[in-house]
Amino acid sequence: VGDDSLLYVVDRGTPGAADGKLSIVDPAAKSEIVVINGLGESPGAAAFHPSGRLLISSLTEGILEVYTPTRSLTLGPGNGVKPGGHGVSGVAVDLRGRVYAVDQGACAAAGTVHVLSAPPDYHEFQTVTVGVCPATAAVAATP
């Protein structure tokens, strides 16, 4: 759920068809109000960034972006951010706006979490080796 109280739903699409999309749903009106096509092959987990961007993971394209105030795709297939040159299986954002991009690698050895600066730069601060074939990440805020 975004700051606008709308629900953002990633649709992975049909395998092999590269037809992933984002549906924006108004839960109060019980209706889909916007569909953003063009997310490519099987987009995955998403996380909101305080800058107004919805960051969407993609194993093939890296980090995709939708700018929620204008409901526009700002980083689509072919332009995604690929930390270490790889796609990502999941994204998370901390309270300082840093982005954590999960790189599962070939799922035969340890994966990597790339710690990145806030968009649009995505400068890599560090990498952390994690278990085999990581799926996604979450950040918890401690009061």
Short description:
This protein has strands spanning 7-11, 20-26, 31-40, 43-48, 53-58, 62-67, 72-75, 90-93, 99-103, 110-116, 124-132. It is mainly β and 143 residues long. It has a single domain, classed as Methylamine Dehydrogenase, Chain H (7 Propeller), CATH 2.130.10.10.
Order of strands in the sheet with the most strands? 4-5-6-7
Shape: globular
As a whole number of angstroms, the C-alpha radius of gyration is 15 Å
**Strand residue content:** over 45%
Q: What structural class do the secondary elements suggest? A: mainly beta
Assigned CATH superfamily = YVTN repeat-like/Quinoprotein amine dehydrogenase
Order of helices and strands: EEEEEEEEEEE
How far apart are the termini? 21 Å
Q: Would you identify the regions where 5 or more consecutive residues have pLDDT less than 50? A: none
Tally of structural domains: 1
Rounded mean pLDDT is 92
Number of helices: 0
CATH topology-level name? Methylamine Dehydrogenase, Chain H
CATH architecture classification name:
7 Propeller
Biggest sheet details:
4 strands, antiparallel
Task: State the share of residues found in helices, binned by percent.
Answer: under 10%
CATH class: Mainly Beta
E-strand count: 11
What does this structure look like?
It contains no helices and 11 strands. With 143 residues, the protein is an all-beta fold. A 4-stranded antiparallel sheet has the order 4-5-6-7, with no helix packed on it. The chain has strands at residues 7-11, 20-26, 31-40, 43-48, 53-58, 62-67, 72-75, 90-93, 99-103, 110-116, 124-132. Helices cover 0% and strands 48% of the residues. β9 (99-103) and β10 (110-116) form a beta hairpin. The protein starts with 6 loop residues before the first strand and ends in an 11-residue tail after the last strand. It has one domain: Methylamine Dehydrogenase, Chain H, CATH 2.130.10.10. The radius of gyration is 15 Å and the shape is globular.
